[in-house]
Amino acid sequence: MSLATTTIAPAGEESRIRWADLAPFIALALIVLFGALVNSNFVSSANLLNVITRSAFIAIIGVGATFVISSGGLDLSVGSMMAFITGIMIMAMNYLAPAFGPWAIPMGAGVALIVGSLCGLFNGLIVTMGRIEPFIVTLGTMGIFRAFITFMTDGGSLSIDRSLREAYRPVYFGNFLGVPYPVLITFAVVMVGAFLLYKTKYGRRLTSAGSNVEVARFSGVNVAKVRTIAYVIQGFCVAVAAICYVPRLGAATPTTGQLWELQVITAVVIGGTLLRGGRGRIGGTVAGALILEVIANVMVLSDMVSEYLVAAVQGAIIIIAMLAHRFTANR
Amino acid sequence: MKSMTLKTGLLLSTVTTALALSFGAAQAQDRNITMAVSIPAATHGWTGGVVYHAEQAEKEIEAAFPNIDVVLSTASSATAQVSSLEDLSSTRKLDALVILPFTSEELTGPVAQVKEKGTFIAVVDRGLADPSIQDLYVAGDNIAVGANTATWLSDKLGGEGEIVVLRGIPTVIDDERIKGFSDVIGKTKIKILDIQYANWNQDEAFKLMQDYLAKYPKIDAVWANDDDMLLGVIEAVDQAGRKDIKYALGGNGMKQVIEMVKEGDERTPVSTPYPPSMIKSAMYMTAAQFAGQAPMRGSFLLGAPLITPENADQFYFPESPF
């Protein structure tokens, strides 16, 4: 992961800003160091691979959220949307399995990507055309998607066809030269996302729309279009995460992806993206996602905290990380 | 999309039933006893099972007792349940109310008001704050769920070994199960290495189990306290390829796990029921109170016998979502 992030750091800016950009990685390194001191099992390759693979979902969705948030928007529906796409994808695969065998998997994944992009487009159009606060719009669609998955599962669980299960499992559990597939997929999403955000005209328009709408409009940026595309990117990323998620447990339930939206937003903000828009840090988002998973992992591996207080310590560490970030940024 | 069409059909039939109910006044005249059933909406596996079994019981009771009219109402929150109680009791005379309360405190007052009109009250699962309101109380035994599993496990492990435990959501239900379990384990030489919350969520159980596996090189058994979480646990154990775990147990009697028990799975040979079908017990008992005048006032605590390959068929409902 660290390899990916060093290439992303924007070149040619003042060293002061670059120092601030490093803050999430320094925080991650400190937590990893702490984990290694607490329990030697933490640094075992099996544990580290587990944690990095697990953080892939939040990281992939986080890349999309970095676009939405730096454009001045917000998407609270990602957790429910992820569950909804998972449900649709499983139904599509089960329907196609008798006719197409294992080919049902890529076809179902294709359906997921289309449905995800459409969900994002739906959010984006209501926000921009309807001129409604993104907080309210996505709060509404969050409920809608959650109700759909509950309806599709009858409150129970929706499992993938047994014949597909074995063929699909490697997408989460398999690896290429020792690197798990979800990590490779995250890497690809991060590279494409970073290219879009930092190297294209679209990326620059997006951040300018996020930092000051009026100025962006006067300089000829179609703010509505730019923001709508950001939501479509978000929906696409959610679908990519869903494709990696299904092979893990092979089922969708009404609790799938619950509260992920908060984890995603936390990861994005810890990573240095401004919640009010105007600045996006994709590498930082990945570091943020890793920080969240590593904290949870260290909490279980250490015996220091009662099981009743784990959430309090997690919350405190996140706040401390943000304070440290602010401190380094102001120097 | 077979199941999608099935669902559309279901939706249509619900609409037609609603229409039939409002227009079918003539039919309602023969049915001179009204039994209202108020339950939480299907938001997760267990409540999904409650809704399924309540719907089944509604059909069966109305077919068996032509004078009883069952009115089923689901609510998505405690507030919504209070409103639906008000609607039910203001529009018709209720002879009986079977209720699975969302929360004890918030529903106590509204149920007491229904009671004042002379309605027979049957409370299921979660008790009200004032037990004098209920005529009939039907519930599962969470302490036994924990205790029976612990007794079985310590038997199989020969009274010693090292185990890990996953907790659900911090609630009375979870506390009682853990208490029943740890009280029995405390009397043996079995050591509980770790106990953490995974919120009755498959994903969180998967992650927690991965962490347990990384932390402890040898684990003899794991108790997930719930079958939904057990599925996540098993996935994590299989993925890590760990052979030291002799037993992985859950609880609740989810159909996927009952299937494993039936097939004689070596690692998960038993489960413990905390059946959502207890709503059915309460509805049948209430119907008996009116139709057969069999006395049904009192408390009925369902046992939590172990589900084994021999008796698994009694607990298996392939059509139920849970």
TrEMBL record, chain A:
Pfam entry (one): BPD_transp_2
Subcellular location: Cell membrane
Principal subcellular localization: membrane
GO CC entries: plasma membrane
Transmembrane domains' residue ranges: 22-42, 48-69, 103-127, 134-152, 172-198, 229-251, 257-275, 282-302, 308-327
Keywords: Cell membrane, Membrane, Transmembrane, Transmembrane helix
GO MF term (any one): transmembrane transporter activity
Protein topology in the membrane: Multi-pass membrane protein
Name of this chain's protein: ABC transporter permease
Automatic annotation (TrEMBL), chain B:
Gene Ontology MF terms in the entry: carbohydrate binding
Principal subcellular localisation of the protein: other
Keyword terms, alphabetized: Signal
Occurrences of domain Periplasmic binding protein (ranges): 36-293
A Pfam family this chain is assigned to: Peripla_BP_4
Keyword Signal applies: yes
Cell compartments where the protein resides: Cell envelope
Signal peptide (residue range): 1-28
InterPro entries per the UniProt record, alphabetical: Peripla_BP_I (IPR028082), SBP_2_dom (IPR025997)
Any single Gene Ontology cellular-component annotation: cell envelope
Assigned protein family: Belongs to the bacterial solute-binding protein 2 family.
Protein name: Substrate-binding domain-containing protein
Species in which this protein is naturally found: Oryzicola mucosus
Taxon lineage: Bacteria, Pseudomonadati, Pseudomonadota, Alphaproteobacteria, Hyphomicrobiales
